[in-house]
Every structure is written in structure tokens, then in C-alpha cells.
Amino acid sequence: MIEDITVREGSLEAPTRHPVEWKTEEFWDKDSLNEELERVYDICHGCRRCVSLCDSFPTLFDLVD
């Protein structure tokens, strides 16, 4: 997981692309993947700001709920 990421909501700056460390053991670990997916889904489930932009959200929310 990447540490020390500053989030500036509504910023006009281009997003920073962080390297994906696909050669590490953690990248291929299923438990680590599930933990990260749950973290991201929890953020999406709580925010719902971009629901109207993506057709996958109803399915995601049905699975989370």
C-alpha cells in the first residue's frame, strides 16, 4: 500500500500516477488483495459521488449491502 498520499479534492492539478509494484509478494497475495478491495469498496460505498458515471456501482452496492 502506498503511504503519505495527500488528497486534494477538487484540485486542478493532474493526478499523480504511482508505480504498481507488481513484482512484490504482496501484490500477488490474495488476502492482501481482498483487504485492499474491501478498503476501496468501503470508500466508494460511503462516498457515492460518481455513481451516475459508472454502471458498475449498482452491482457493487448490491454486493456490499
Query: How many beta-strand runs?
Result: 0
Low-confidence segments: none
Alpha-carbon distance between the two ends:
25 Å
Total helix count? 3
Question: What is the approximate shape?
Answer: flat
Helix content: 40-55%
Q: What is the gyration radius calculated from CA atoms?
A: 14 Å
Helix and strand pattern: HHH
Major sheet, described briefly?
Answer: none
Mean pLDDT: 81
The share of residues in extended strands comes to: under 5%
SS-derived structural category: mainly alpha
Provide a compact summary of the structure.
With 65 residues, the chain is mainly alpha-helical. The protein has helices spanning 25-28, 30-47, 57-64.
Explain this structure to me?
The chain has helices at 25-28, 30-47, 57-64. The two termini are 25 Å apart. It is mainly α. The chain has a domain at 25-64.
Record keyword descriptors for this entry.
65 residues, mainly alpha, flat
Topology:
Blueprint: H1 25-28, H2 30-47, H3 57-64
